[in-house]
Amino acid sequence: MQKERINYGIRVHDHPNDIDSELWDALLALQTHPTPFMRHGYLLAVHESQSAVSATGWQAQWISVWAGEEMVAACPLYVKPHSYGEYVFDWAWARAYQQHGLDYYPKAVIAVPFTPVPGSRLLARDAQSRLVLIQAVQAFCEEQKLSSCHLLFGTDDDMQACQQLGWMNRQTVQFHWQQSDWPSFDDFLASMTQEKRKKIKQERKKVTQADVQFRSMQGSGISDTDWNFFYQCYERTYWEHGNAPYLSRDFFKRMQKSMSNNWLLFIAQKNKQDIACSLIGLQQIAGHPTVAYGRYWGALERVDCLHFEACYYQPLEWCIQNGIARFEGGAQGEHKMARALMPVMTHSAHWIADDRFANAIHEFLKREIQGVDNYMEHLGERTPFKKIESDFSREPFGS
Q1: For the CA atoms of the chain, what is the radius of gyration?
Q2: Distance from C-alpha of 265 to C-alpha of 67, rounded to nearest angstrom
């Protein structure tokens, strides 16, 4: 039986609101690994808060695929004159272009701005629609004479579609905590080696002895005052490193209004004064949080080990109490292993227009992938868990 031929239409959108939010989120719900950061409301807030717009180097050129009146695929494509806010680093590639008198920028990325959270990037009804989408992306990049396109922190489905067009795979490592049905934080600690268990207890004791207490708020329970304090801490963290914050205060106001249930805030207090906080993203399924994402942190006062308490121990204790399946600790940070966040592989896909550079980058990536594999093997020998708990290879996209 001959397969019916579908005539697809391709559209390019320079504003998120050019795509109906219900159509976008309906496609997202079909994917193997939806996250709250790929929701239309999140991406719209990043745009309308002026955090990721042309003026900051994120020119929206979203691509959608249509079969008649039905949108069957879409992705958030951005054209960029820099590589900031991506967390898959290609600065060396840009320098190589410059050394040969060529322009690496502008380039394109399929990504969630400033958000290194693995998840579905090519939203599609089926595999065929996904392939048509990535073909449309590549055709757009060729027409615009862009040097390259980079799909960041994608899923296996995304990678398979890209690889059908010869895009190159790149691997990086993140650190995620997986639930093992521990009844309490003490039971969780009991599953760890004596050395790691002792270290965590010592770190928590330092915070307690500094007379620091924590409170947590979720969703509508996070007040305007709490949000304002969070942003004060968030902003200070960036300025201490000599950089302006990526996300504006207006972005978080929009999150408070449109996606409040996707946020959990921990605030540290000392001498009845708020001194630090961490903001955790939440994936909600049927009104219940299932995955937590460590996103932002900041402090107005320095206390020994406060960062570990705010960013790991408080969230992990909350995850255990609430039956959360996974806590993702964000980009980089081998030190997270000592806090029971285990290494997982993340993936990106790369298309390079110039064959000469594509060949050179392909050889570089082969060596890099071997190095990442060796690194993962090295990390596997350093598990903080007792041997019976040492399965560090669990997939980041598990339930």
Answers
A1: 22
A2: 42
pLDDT (tens digit per residue) in 19-46: 999 999 999 999 999 999 999 999 999 9
Fold (CATH) for 180-324? Aminopeptidase (3.40.630)
Q: Specify the length of the chain in residues.
A: 399
Distance (Å, whole) CA 365 – CA 157: 20
Indicate the fold that domain 8-174+345-379 takes in CATH.
Aminopeptidase (3.40.630)
C-alpha distances in Å from residue 243, one per residue of 20, 45, 58, 235, 246: 34, 21, 17, 9, 9
Domains of the chain, residue spans: 8-174+345-379, 180-324
Count of C-beta atoms within a 10 Å radius of residue 366: 12
pLDDT at 4: 62
Q: Reduce the DSSP state of residue 141 to 3 states and report it.
A: helix
> Using CA atoms, how far apart are residues 229 and 278, in angstroms rounded to an integer?
11
pLDDT in tens, 302-341: 999 999 999 999 999 999 999 999 999 877 778 899 999 9
pLDDT by 10-residue block (mean), the chain, 399 residues: 75 98 98 98 99 98 98 99 97 97 98 98 98 99 99 98 98 95 96 96 98 98 98 96 96 98 98 97 93 97 97 98 94 86 96 97 97 93 76 42
Write the DSSP symbol of residue 2.
Answer: P
Report yes or no: 330 and 116 within 8 Å, Cβ to Cβ.
Answer: yes
The overall pTM is greater than 0.85 = yes
Distance of CA 178 to the CA centre of its chain: 17
Query: Hey, what amino acid is at 111?
Result: A
Partners of 148 in the β-ladder: 352
Within 10 angstroms of residue 40's Cβ, the number of other Cβ atoms is: 22
Q: Cα 188 to the chain's mean position, in Å? A: 26
- Residue ranges of the alpha helices (H) in the chain? 21-29, 40-48, 91-99, 127-143, 156-164, 185-190, 194-209, 224-240, 249-258, 306-308, 314-321, 355-380
Q: How far apart are CA 276 and CA 116, in angstroms?
A: 23
